[in-house]
Design the sequence.
C-alpha cells in the first residue's frame, strides 16, 4: 500500500540563464506518495509553483524509462541519485523517508554549461560523435547482413558498450569532468565489430582529440562507472587507450614512410 | 462532395509496383542535388535516416529537433525488435507473407501497395543497420538470431536485447552525426516547429520557435519532411515520452494536409498501472511476459484477502476462460478490452483497483525460478524498480495503456501529404498499419520510409523545380505565419487564468480515454464531443502560464502542445463516431459479434477517412479514399 511522505525539504538550484550566478532555493513538499517517481515529485512541485504564480523549475526529461538519457539530476551529490544502475527518471520516492532533505543540482562540468535551473547543454557529446563515432556506410550499398559472421562474445561485448544512453552522468561524477567513459564506450562498440575495422584508428584519434577539446583528463578514478545508469565498465577506457596508442604508432610509421 | 484522393499507386501487379515506380521516377543529377534544400523535422528513426540519406545523396538538409540531441527521439524506447522478411530461419517467410501478415494485422484497413513496398524494403534495412554497426543478437555461429512475435507464424524479428529501438536509433543518429560533421546537414536542436508555410499551394517552409530564447524564425526549402511521431499523448497517460506531441502534424493539417483515421490508436495490454493521481507517464512491460504469466482477477469485487490467500476457486482467469485456445496470448486489442471490463466490474486489483494480475507462480513452480529469471530477469527488475514489489513473490499488476497511433497525416504512395512538397514519414503518417499495428513493425516502417522510400520519391518532386526560384523567408506568407505564432504564444502567457497546461492536459486526456479509448460507443463519443469544446473554451479563458516568452519556458511549450491536443481530440472523436464498425484498435461496442469480437463492415467502411481542415475541428470535412484490395481476400480475424 502506498504511503505519503511528509515534510520533504528540497534544496534546488535555480539559475535564470547561462549568465546568472544561480543559487539554492528551498521548497517544502508534503504528502507526496512514496509510489511517485522522483520526477513526478518535481512535476507535482511545479504544478504547485504555477498555481502560486511562480515560474516552474526547468529540468530535462523525456522518456521516463531510463533509455533516452535526457534526465540529468545531481541528487544529494550523486549523479542520478542513490539507486544503483538507475537514471533519475526511474528513481522512486520510496527510496526516501519523511523528513529527508534532498539537494538537487544540475550536472556540474565545464563542458556542460548550465542553460537554466537544472538543465545543461551537453552538445559537446554530439561533437565527439560527429568527429568519428560512426561507421561510414552510405545508405544503399550494404552487403547482406549475414555475409560477415560476428562471434557472439564479440557482438555481446559491442552491445555492452553500445548501451550508453549519453546522459552525461559519467562526466558529472568525474572529479576531472572527463568524458572518457562516454567516448570510449562508443569507440569500443564500433572498434570491436568487423564492420568498424576500416576506420578503427582514424576513429579513435578523431574522437579522443575532439573529446580533449572540451573535457578534462581521465585519471582512473572510476567514479564514472559507479554513476553509469547502464553500468558500462571502465574496461572500455582501457580498450580505447590501447587503440589510441596503436593509432599513434601506426601514424608515426605512415609519416616516416611519407 | 468529397474530394477524390489519388493514392498514386503505380500500375502493374502488386509485386512489381515499386520496381515500376523506380524505373519511371524522375532523377536529379548528382551535381544538381546541392541546389535543392530539404527540411526534415524530427530526428527519430524516420527523420534521422531520411536526413542522413538525403545529405549523402547531395541535397542540402536542415534537420530540426526539439530535443537537445537527435539521439533522444522516442524511437529509442522501442524494446522488442524489428521485422524483416529475410527468411534466415528458413521457416517459410517471404516478402509476400510479411505483407499479408501486416495487412491482416491491420484488420484490412491499410493500402496494399504501400504495405507491399514496406515488406520489400524490410530486408535492406537489416543489411544497412548491420553495416553501420548495430549489434543485433547473434547465434554462436556468428549469424543473426531471430525471434517470433505476435501476429506471425515465422521468426522474422531481429533484436538487440530489449533495446532494439535504442540501437537502431543510435545507428541512424551516428549516420546523421557524420553528415552534420561533414556539413551536409545543418542541425537545429531545441527548436520546435510551430507552423508550416504554404505558398501558391506548395510547401514553402516552416516557422520554428527556438526553445532557449523564444525567438520565432522562418526557414524556407524546396520540400519539407515531417517525421514527428505519433499523438498517443493525447490521452495524457501513455507510454509515449513526455514531450511527444501532435503539433507538427496538426499545424500541417491546419494548412491543408488531410489527417487520416485519427481514431486508430493502439492500446498495449501490459503496462504498469497508474499508482497515484500525480502520475505523468506509464511504463510498458514487454508483451513476451504473457508467454508464461497467467492473467487473473478475484471473482469477488469486494475481495479483501491478501493475494496469496485467495484460493484457486475464487480467482477468475478470464482470458483462459473466454479464449481457451489463445488464452493468455490473446491479441493486444482483445486482452486490453477484457482487462478493462474486469476493472470496470470492480474486480481490479492494487491500491487503486485499477489493474489485473499477471501471475508467474505457476511458471515458477513448473520451470523453476532460474528459468523464469533467465527469460524475464531484466523485466522483473524493471518492474520492481517502478512498482516496488518483487514479481517472484507477488503477482505483477498490469493494465492497458496508449502506446502507438496508426492514424496520422494522409499520404500517397510517395509519402506526400495533400500539400505538394510536404511529406510525412514514420508514425506521423497513416500509411502502413491500417487499424492495428503488429509488434516490431514500427521500427521497420520508420526506417523504410526514411532510408528507402523518401530518397526516391522526393527526387521525383524536385526534378522539375531545377533552377526555378523558391520564395524566401521574407515572403509575406512567412511573415504572416511568424506573427500568428508570436501572437499565439503571447496569447498563452496573457490569459493569466488559474490552471496549468498540465491540468488541462490531464482533463482532456481523461475525456478521450473514457470515451475514445479501448471501447467506444455512439453515446460516449457524443458526450465527449459536447464536453471537449466546453473544456477547450475554459482552456482559452483559464490557462495559466508563468514565466516569460523570452527564455526557456517548458510551461509555455506545453501550453502550445495541449492546445493542439484539444483540437486533435475533437477530430478523433468525430472520426470514431463516423466509423460505424469495429476494426483493429477501433472498437465500437455497438458493432461486435456474439463473442464480443470486432465486427467489420467491409461494404461501407473498407476505406480511409481523410479529414480536411475547415477552421474548426468540430466541422472538419470528411474525404474518403476507398481501399481496393487486388491481391488480398478480406477475412475475419478469429482468436478462439
Sequence:
Amino acid at each position: 500500500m502506498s504511503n505519503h511522505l511528509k515534510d520533504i525539504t528540497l534544496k534546488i538550484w535555480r539559475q535564470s540563464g547561462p549568465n546568472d550566478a544561480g543559487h539554492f532555493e528551498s521548497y517544502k513538499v508534503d504528502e507526496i506518495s512514496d509510489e511517485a517517481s522522483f520526477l513526478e515529485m518535481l512535476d507535482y512541485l511545479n504544478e504547485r509553483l504555477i498555481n502560486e504564480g511562480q515560474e516552474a523549475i526547468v529540468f530535462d526529461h523525456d522518456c521516463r524509462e531510463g533509455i533516452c538519457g535526457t534526465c540529468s539530476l545531481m541528487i544529494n551529490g550523486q549523479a542520478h541519485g542513490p539507486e544503483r544502475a538507475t537514471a533519475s527518471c526511474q528513481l522512486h520516492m520510496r527510496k526516501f523517508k519523511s523528513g529527508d532533505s534532498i539537494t538537487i543540482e544540475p550536472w556540474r562540468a565545464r563542458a556542460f554549461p548550465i542553460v537554466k535551473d537544472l538543465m545543461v547543454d551537453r552538445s559537446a557529446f554530439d561533437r565527439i560523435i560527429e568527429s568519428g563515432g560512426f561507421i561510414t556506410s552510405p545508405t544503399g550499398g550494404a552487403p547482406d547482413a549475414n555475409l560477415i559472421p560476428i562471434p557472439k562474445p564479440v557482438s555481446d561485448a559491442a552491445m555492452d558498450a553500445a548501451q550508453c544512453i549519453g546522459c552525461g552522468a559519467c562526466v558529472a561524477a568525474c572529479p576531472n569532468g572527463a568524458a572518457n567513459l562516454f567516448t570510449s564506450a562508443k569507440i569500443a562498440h564500433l572498434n570491436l565489430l568487423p564492420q568498424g575495422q576500416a576506420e578503427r584508428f582514424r576513429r579513435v584519434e578523431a574522437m579522443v582529440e575532439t573529446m580533449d577539446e572540451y573535457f578534462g583528463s581521465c585519471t582512473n578514478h572510476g567514479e564514472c562507472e559507479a554513476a553509469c545508469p547502464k553500468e558500462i565498465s571502465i574496461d572500455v577506457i582501457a580498450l580505447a587507450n590501447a587503440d589510441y596508442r596503436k593509432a599513434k604508432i601506426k601514424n608515426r610509421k605512415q609519416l616516416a614512410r611519407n | 462532395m468529397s474530394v477524390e484522393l489519388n493514392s498514386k499507386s503505380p500500375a502493374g501487379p502488386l509485386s512489381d509496383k515499386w520496381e515500376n515506380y523506380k524505373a519511371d521516377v524522375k532523377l536529379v543529377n548528382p551535381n544538381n542535388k546541392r541546389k535543392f534544400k530539404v527540411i526534415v523535422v524530427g530526428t527519430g528513426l524516420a527523420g534521422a535516416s531520411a536526413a542522413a540519406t538525403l545529405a549523402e545523396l547531395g541535397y542540402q538538409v536542415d534537420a530540426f529537433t526539439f530535443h537537445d540531441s537527435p539521439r533522444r527521439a522516442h524511437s529509442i524506447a522501442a524494446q522488442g525488435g524489428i521485422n524483416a522478411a529475410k527468411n534466415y530461419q528458413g521457416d517459410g517467410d517471404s516478402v509476400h507473407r510479411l505483407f499479408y501478415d501486416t495487412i491482416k494485422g491491420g484488420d484490412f484497413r491499410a493500402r496494399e501497395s504501400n504495405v507491399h513496398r514496406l515488406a520489400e524494403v524490410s530486408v535492406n534495412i537489416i543489411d544497412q543497420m548491420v553495416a553501420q554497426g548495430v549489434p543485433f543478437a547473434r547465434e554462436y555461429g556468428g549469424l543473426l538470431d531471430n525471434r517470433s512475435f505476435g501476429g506471425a507464424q515465422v521468426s522474422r524479428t531481429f533484436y538487440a536485447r530489449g533495446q532494439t529501438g535504442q540501437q537502431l536509433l543510435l545507428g541512424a543518429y551516428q549516420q546523421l552525426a557524420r553528415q552534420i560533421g561533414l556539413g551536409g546537414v545543418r542541425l537545429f536542436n531545441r527548436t520546435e516547429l510551430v507552423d508550416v508555410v504554404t505558398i501558391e499551394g506548395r510547401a514553402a517552409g516552416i516557422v520554428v520557435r527556438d526553445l532557449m530564447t523564444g525567438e520565432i524564425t522562418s526557414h524556407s526549402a524546396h520540400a519539407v519532411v515531417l517525421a514527428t511521431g505519433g499523438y498517443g499523448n493525447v490521452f495524457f497517460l501513455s507510454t509515449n515520452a513526455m514531450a511527444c506531441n501532435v503539433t507538427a502534424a496538426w499545424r500541417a493539417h491546419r494548412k491543408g494536409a488531410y489527417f487520416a483515421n485519427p481514431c486508430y490508436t493502439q492500446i498495449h495490454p501490459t503496462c504498469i498501472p497508474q499508482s497515484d493521481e500525480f502520475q505523468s507517464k506509464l511504463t510498458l512491460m514487454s508483451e513476451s511476459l504473457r508467454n508464461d504469466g497467467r492473467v487473473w482477477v478475484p471473482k469477488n469485487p469486494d475481495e479483501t484477502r491478501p493475494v496469496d490467500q485467495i484460493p484457486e476457486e475464487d480467482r477468475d482467469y478470464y482470458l483462459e476462460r473466454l479464449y481457451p485456445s489463445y488464452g493468455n496470448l490473446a491479441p493486444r486489442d482483445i486482452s486490453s478490452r477484457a482487462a478493462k471490463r474486469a476493472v470496470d466490474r470492480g474486480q481490479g486489483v492494487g491500491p487503486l483497483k485499477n489493474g489485473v494480475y499477471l501471475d508467474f507462480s505457476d511458471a515458477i513452480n513448473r520451470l523453476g525460478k532460474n528459468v523464469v529469471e533467465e527469460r524475464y530477469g531484466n523485466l522483473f527488475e524493471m518492474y520492481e524498480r517502478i512498482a516496488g514489489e518483487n514479481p517472484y513473490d507477488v503477482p505483477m499488476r498490469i493494465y492497458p495503456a496508449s502506446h502507438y497511433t496508426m492514424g496520422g497525416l494522409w499520404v500517397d504512395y510517395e509519402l506526400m501529404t495533400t500539400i505538394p512538397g510536404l511529406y510525412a514519414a514514420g508514425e506521423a503518417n497513416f500509411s502502413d498499419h491500417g487499424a492495428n499495428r503488429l509488434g516490431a513493425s514500427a521500427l521497420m516502417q520508420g526506417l523504410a520510409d526514411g532510408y528507402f522510400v523518401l530518397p526516391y520519391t522526393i527526387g521525383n518532386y524536385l526534378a522539375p523545380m531545377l533552377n526555378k526560384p523558391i520564395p524566401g523567408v521574407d515572403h509575406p506568407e512567412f511573415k504572416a505565419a511568424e506573427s500568428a505564432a508570436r501572437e499565439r504564444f503571447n496569447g498563452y502567457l496573457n490569459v493569466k487564468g488559474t490552471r496549468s497546461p498540465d491540468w488541462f492536459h490531464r482533463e482532456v486526456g481523461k475525456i478521450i480515454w473514457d470515451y475514445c479509448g479501448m471501447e467506444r460507443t455512439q453515446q460516449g463519443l457524443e458526450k465527449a464531443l459536447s464536453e471537449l469544446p466546453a473544456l477547450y473554451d475554459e482552456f482559452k479563458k483559464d490557462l495559466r502560464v508563468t514565466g516569460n516568452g523570452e527564455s526557456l519556458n517548458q510551461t509555455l511549450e506545453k501550453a502550445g502542445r495541449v492546445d493542439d491536443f484539444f483540437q486533435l481530440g475533437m477530430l478523433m472523436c468525430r472520426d470514431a463516431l463516423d466509423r460505424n464498425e469495429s476494426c483493429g484498435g477501433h472498437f465500437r461496442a455497438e458493432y461486435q459479434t456474439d463473442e464480443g469480437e470486432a465486427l467489420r463492415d467491409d461494404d461501407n467502411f473498407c476505406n480511409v477517412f481523410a479529414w480536411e481542415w475547415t477552421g474548426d475541428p468540430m466541422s472538419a470535412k470528411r474525404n474518403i479514399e476507398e481501399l481496393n484490395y487486388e491481391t488480398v481476400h478480406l477475412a475475419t480475424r478469429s482468436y478462439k
